Amino acid sequence: MASAHRPAPSHREDTGSADGSSSAESRGGLVIADRVVEKIAAQCASEIPGIGGREGGFLGVGSHADLDSRPRVRVELTGSIAVLSVDLGIEYPLPIEETTERVRETLVRRVSDLAGVDVRQVDIRVTYLVPQRGRKERVLL
Amino acid sequence: MKKTAGSFNRTWLAIIGVVLLAAGVLWGIVAAGLLASSGASSGHWGPSGKPFQGASSALDGTWLAPVLIVAGAVLVILALWWLVRQIPRSEKASTFRFHKDPKRGFTQVEPKVITDAVAAHLEDLTYVTDAKAGLKGQRTNADLVLDVTVNERADLADVTREIREQVLPSVKSALGSPLGSVGIVYAVSRQSRSKRQVKLQ
What we know:
Chain A: It comes from Rothia koreensis. Chain A: Residues 1-26 are annotated as: Disordered. The complex is a heterodimer of chains A (141) and B (201). Chain A has helices at residues 34-46, 96-115; strands at 3-7, 29-33, 51-55, 64-66, 72-78, 81-92, 118-131. Chain A is α+β, with helices and mostly antiparallel strands and 141 residues long. Chain A has one domain: 2-Layer Sandwich (Alpha-Beta Plaits), CATH 3.30.70.1350. In chain A, a hairpin with a 2-residue loop joins β5 (72-78) and β6 (81-92). Chain A is elongated and about 60 Å long. Chain B is α+β, with helices and mostly antiparallel strands. Chain B has two domains: 2-89, no CATH class; 96-189, Cation efflux protein, cytoplasmic domain (Alpha-Beta Plaits, 2-Layer Sandwich), CATH 3.30.70.1350. The radius of gyration of chain B is 30 Å and the shape is elongated. The A-B interface holds A 83-84, 92-98, 100-101, 104, 108, 121-131, 133, 137, 139 and B 98-100, 103-109, 113-114, 116-117, 120-121, 124, 169-171, 173-176, 197, 199. β7 of chain A pairs parallel with β4 of chain B, so a sheet runs across the interface.
């Protein structure tokens, strides 16, 4: 499992030491696993209107489109640089180019803010387009 | 959307025709004695020449049988290849790319993803019992073919109007660019597409 390593802040005033002599290294580091980055990215993408993932199935077989699910995200971490690969669905007929650009901008900004990694690239593969009727609706019998 | 071997056949028939025509012209020139009069052939192609002199000795050669077998095998392979090319193939569009700046990442969509959504949209129209869609060409100028099966009660003019007013604008919206051309193929069926529920709002 890859991980991103962030050194602890080097502010001396935040060390809590009485004499303020302990260094940042002595206070430890922060390690973020790639799966954490993936989940953060998937959640950020799912919060964008009209974006969804897949739900159900077993080992990826038999899953169905669901705009209320989180998209599938894979991350390649190199140091603190991340490259994301996102498989997602889009509500039809939203414009694909504009919608995916919005996803890309959102992921670059929010994942960098939340996980502290530098997202350089976001590869997006649109796996389905589902009409509005595909959303979960309340059916009256 | 099928691609047939029409142009392929025409090309190879033209090549074979040119070769046979050249052989026929050569035969005619030889038969007319023009080749002998040109002085290019004093022996084989002259009026007293024997073009096939020595052919009987070639028939006795041990190399002839393997050469004929190899030539026959090549001809069989070429014939089979030509036969296989006669099978109509689906002409698929390549993966559509929607990214503006590749440095920031790729955005890829298989044409089937779009055509499945279009088919689902078509099947929501009144009296449409089944639908298929096909895309080919580039994303910015794609050609769309719709294969629509309607119930026998359907008014094709109404269905066409619904497709023009509802389906095509959605496709253009999703692609983000106008379509190059649109073709609609209708089939009429006695089957109906009864649904278990109806959406009122």
